What does this fold into?
Amino acid sequence: MAPRDDLGRQSHPAVAAAVAALTPSTEALRDLVRAFRSAMAAGLAGRPSSLKMLPTFVEQPRGDESGRVIVVDWGGTNGRVSVIELGGGDARMVAEDDFAFRESDRTGSAERVFDVIAGAVERVVRGESGPLPLGLVYSFPARLERVDRALALSLTKGWRTVGLEGHDVAELLRVALGRRGLGRVTVAAVANDTVAALILQSYRIRGHAAVATPAEVGLILGTGTNQAADLPGAGIRNHESGNFDGVEAVAAPWDRALDRELADPAPGAQRFEKMAAGGYLGEILRRAIVDLGRSTPLFRWAGSATDTPWSLDTVRLSGVAADESEDRSGTDEILRALGVISTLEERLAVRELARAVGGRAARLVAAALLGTLTFIDPELDSEHTVAVDGGVYGGYPGFAERVRDGLRELARAQRAGRVHLAYVKDSTSAGAAVIAAVAARRQA
Ligand code: BGC
It folds into this structure.
């Protein structure tokens, strides 16, 4: 049956072809699950693999961790320092201070980055007395040697900070805190945001029932994407799954062009992330629109902002995908902001494409998740909790349901039903506080 737009009208053949290119077959996704599992095994064995499977030195919490912890959350342009009070499986934010980087800081010095962070820590600890453990959420790739020693690997999400790669981010922060006379703040742990999500969910579970099975996977789906998992015999590992390269087989022409033309992350790097995460979904849609504008009577929008790379961000893509209004007036508004006056047919077509890009991201995430879960439990015989956070997961309409659909598509329904997706909104700082409390207890 020929594809139809959501008013039931037959799609323009070129739009239908683009949607098809953005819709991997079930079989191709099953191959992806297998490839993901093999890449995990290779990464863990130290063989060449696009999955680094980095050790985290983080242990599951007992649920009884308590006290005040400072947390720095840095994983992009905006960051946050918080004071978190832990107790009884609950993490409560008592104070916070946001900080923001300038565009130029992305390529500036590590010293400048940590100076901005230390400045925010200084503002937040003003009212606090006594020694304070600090957890640093570093949501970029890092090779940990201890829970409080993390050597930065090459950065993602468009960052190229000078003097960071190969250096210990905990030590850089210690030095910056020292410059401000903040020696009573101890950098106790460095953790990735995926690990923070996992640990927060475990803390909540065990805060209520100490013997309960903790969360096993942490998944972030925001500007970037990544998974961490508690693997039998290997402990909690940071997959850096945004770098998984098994997606090449299901890539559409726009994914390949984006990967080729983007300098940072370099071509070939972060392939999974470039097809599934918020930093890229809008741009994939924009590229598809521009291409169709050249070959069809639709989208003759040359001269508008849609010519400009990255002008269509994922928040706009989500807005289009969510637009159920008659006449698609929400989409009209979004396009007008880009300098485009559209027809209803064009708006419906943009919506089809937006939903294809967003739906594909959810199915890719489901496949990668099943890769991890079947690595842990091949037949999915047991129940598993996945802690999920991130702007796309929370912001794209029905994303969680789409991931669940994907799990049902790729695993038998009964097995998929054993996978519990727990949305842990704003988990990063709270989770890192638990990680720092566990580490501080061990170091004491
Ligand atoms: C980073 C990961 C991070 C993920 C989600 C990726 O780009 O490499 O370390 O967990 O984004 O923030």
The radius of gyration is 22 Å. Residues 1-55+195-426 form a domain with the Hexokinase; domain 1 fold (CATH 3.40.367.20). The pocket of beta-D-glucopyranose is lined by residues 75, 139-141, 156-157, 192-194, 220, 222, 224-226, 240, 242, 273 (CB under 6 Å). The longest strand covers residues 90-100.
